[in-house]
Amino acid sequence: MAETAFNSDVSTISAKKRSGSSDDQWDQFAAKKHQSASNKTDDPAVALANARHEFGEHGGVNMSIEASATFTVMEPETMRRMFAGELGPDRDFFIYSRHFNPTVLNLSRLMAAMEGTEAAYCTASGMSAISSVLLQLCSSGGHVVASRTLYGGTHALLTHFFPRACNITTSFVDIGDLEMVEREIVQGKTKVLYFEAISNPVLTVANVPELCRIAHDKGVTVVVDNTFAPMVVSPARLGADVVVHSISKYISGGADIIAGAVCGPAKLVNSMMDLHQGSLMLLGPTMNPKVAFELSERLPHLGLRMKEHCHRALVYATRMKKLGLKVIYPGLEDHPEHALLKSIAHKDYGYGGIMCVDMGTEEKANKLMNLLQNCSQFGFMAVSLGYYETLMSCSGSSTSSEMNEDEKALAGISPGLVRMSIGYSGTLEQRWAQFEKALARMS
């Protein structure tokens, strides 16, 4: 297929090219604008503000929703040229929404701007983004080196599904042990180094620059899941090749949408859309354009939301620690990677909106969560994260339940580990009083 324009430039309206004629001058102008905008700042909020604003069909301040599954052409010859790869979405030629849809493409451009990558493609879920990019990068017999501390679904994909269905194997490592990571990479066989910027659920912070250096020295592609830290960390700006997201979490913010994204080089994203070999094109994890429209309306205030999530998480973690609770939060100075995160995080966005309280046993964890929800209304017992209300779950028996006991022990997941996604509804002091009320009942 044709190379696709993912320009995040500051032009306000895309040029409409419904004829097959070329316009090299426009293309060069757009490329220069894109280059200047992408190089201007490392701050993801500024990059988003610099991204092209797509106006509606009749001049609306919000873009129109292109709900069509298929698209017409004006001349028969145009369709042949589109399927031959001569004409594509970069010049406003669309074939079918499983391939590219204008509304979804606009969200993809925003995601690329936020993460500082050339391109992005938004998918129907976070797991579809992860599985599609790994299947594109790895063939049968391929090898992945991955962190031990991963979301349970990703761990199951790498541990069980890939070896059975695809003959792709994975070596799991302590991502903080750089020598171990280097040792497990088999030059010529290992295709991907995969880890989470801030891990789920134990909040290990990855040394992204050093891990990228090790991988790139051996010709390995680095894929980073940044679901826990949008705006806080920009892995691609630190050297990562590909960044994946579960957009369902912080980016959505409403716990009402399932979606994902792959952010990376245009060459990779376009290869994933190839008619014959593309994992996204052939597996079809297509995002609904109505969902893409909603998400594009939420991205502009992601930075503000992340700052409040992170601010409250730091305040609560500090206070809980003073009360004698065993708290895990990278914003605390006693966290093993506190200095590392401080050195790679964007200033003013904090240290993440997730914190953990280790109650030791599942029984105590369940008792605390029950009181926090049903006695004091501090938050809800629910999986997921990034919601405006606080969400709590006992990771070992929920989002990490796909791992066996030995795997959980290696990952540092205690039976009583309570993961809290700190919300921002109500006032900070109101919610803190609710936490103290529940804790008093625990005694």
* Beta-strand share of residues: 5-15%
Strand order of the largest sheet: 1-7-6-5-4-2-3
The SS-based structural class is alpha/beta
Unreliable spans are: 1-40
Mean pLDDT: 90
Q: For the terminal residues, how far apart are their CA atoms?
A: 64 Å
What coarse outline follows from CA principal-axis ratios? globular
CATH class designation of the largest domain: Alpha Beta
What's the number of helices?
16
Task: List its salient traits.
single chain, 443 residues, alpha/beta, Aspartate Aminotransferase, domain 2, Aspartate Aminotransferase, domain 1, 2 domains, seven-stranded mixed sheet, five-stranded mixed sheet, 12 strands, 40% helix, disordered N terminus
What does this protein structure show overall?
InterPro entries: Cys/Met-Metab_PyrdxlP-dep_enz, PyrdxlP-dep_Trfase, PyrdxlP-dep_Trfase_major, PyrdxlP-dep_Trfase_small. Its cofactor is pyridoxal 5'-phosphate. GO terms for molecular function: carbon-sulfur lyase activity; pyridoxal phosphate binding. One of its GO terms (biological process) is transsulfuration. This is Methionine gamma-lyase. This protein starts with about 25 loop residues before the first helix and ends with a helix. A seven-stranded mixed β-sheet has the order 1-7-6-5-4-2-3, with helices on both faces. Helix 2 packs antiparallel against helix 4. It is globular and about 75 Å long. The chain has about 450 residues and is an alpha/beta fold. Strand 2, helix 6 and strand 3 form a beta-alpha-beta unit. The protein has 16 helices and twelve strands. The longest helix has 21 residues. It folds into two domains: about 200 residues, 3-Layer(aba) Sandwich (Aspartate Aminotransferase, domain 2), CATH 3.40.640.10; about 140 residues, Aspartate Aminotransferase, domain 1.
